[in-house]
Amino acid sequence: MDDLKSLKGIVQSDPEILGGTPVFVGTRVPLQNLIDSLEGGESIEDFLDGFPSVRREQVVAVIEAGKTAVLQSMGHAHPH
Half-sphere exposure (CA, 13 Å, Cβ side) for 8? Predict the structure, then answer.
């Protein structure tokens, strides 16, 4: 899957870490926590304050990967 390749070094899924739940690399913070925070109206800064082991660059990479996936699904192969 191209989306997972773009997140290599950002998000990982390892059966030995939280039973394979996707987490930010170098942490035990599930990716779902970011999604839940943003859906709940929190800012990226709020999320980072709550989970200081996650780096801003990781959060931005996840958001960019999501944007790319949406644009590709709409037929825009090269998002800007």
Answer: 4
